[in-house]
Design a protein that fits this description.
Blueprint (H helix, E strand, L loop, with lengths): L1 H12 L71 H7 L10 H10 L6 H12 L30 H14 L3 H11 L3
């Protein structure tokens, strides 16, 4: 059946079968036939199925069907679960409950020379985190002044000094602690 389709295809393409199937006899003496040429504007010669002669293809040229291959088992590997942002924060010491460290925060404020602004700092940090440097809110903002997102804070959950430096810079960018206090009163956040 394959031979018939091959011959029919060759006839349709107007090519001799000898160009598609290798010869298995001595071809040194026989001249190589030229493919038919058809000039533009002329009608190609008509080839009928009766003009096609069967050819012999040696059995060694026939492609044998592939044998089934057993699939190679792939060992199952389970990667450790990647902690969520919340899990990572909790593991780093951040928490939701209030663990006030007012005395430690006030001592650090005084050590930084910001004692004159304690009233404003106390008011803002008391309402934002209850003076708890490790406090998180429901939006995962955190720290003494609730930096959001918490990653921009760049301080640990218990690093009061680092957090006060960061929130002091934040307050100064808003005009100082008194201006930040006024802003907090007007919108209940800063």
């Amino acid at each position: 059946m394959k031979q018939i389709y091959l011959k029919l295809l060759c006839a349709l393409l107007l090519l001799p079968v000898s160009y598609l199937v290798p010869r298995f006899h001595d071809t040194a003496a026989a001249p190589k036939p030229k493919p038919p040429t058809v000039e533009v504007g002329t009608t190609p010669p008509v080839v009928s199925v009766q003009d096609i002669k069967p050819i012999e293809i040696p059995p060694e040229t026939v492609v044998q069907p592939l044998q089934a291959v057993e699939p190679v088992p792939v060992p199952e590997t389970t990667a450790p679960p990647v902690p969520t942002k919340l899990e990572a924060l909790l593991a780093a010491g951040w928490h939701f409950d209030c663990r006030s460290q007012t005395a430690a925060v006030e001592a650090e404020v005084n050590a930084m020379g910001l004692g004159a602004d304690w009233f404003y700092i106390d008011y803002i940090l008391g309402r934002e985190s209850c003076h708890d440097p490790g406090r998180l809110n429901s939006n995962l903002c955190g720290g003494l002044g609730q930096a959001c997102p918490i990653e921009k804070l760049g301080c640990g959950a218990n690093d009061i000094h680092c957090q006060l430096v960061w929130f002091n810079n934040y307050a100064q960018a808003k005009g100082g602690w008194a201006a930040s206090y006024a802003l907090w009163l007007s919108q209940n956040w800063w």
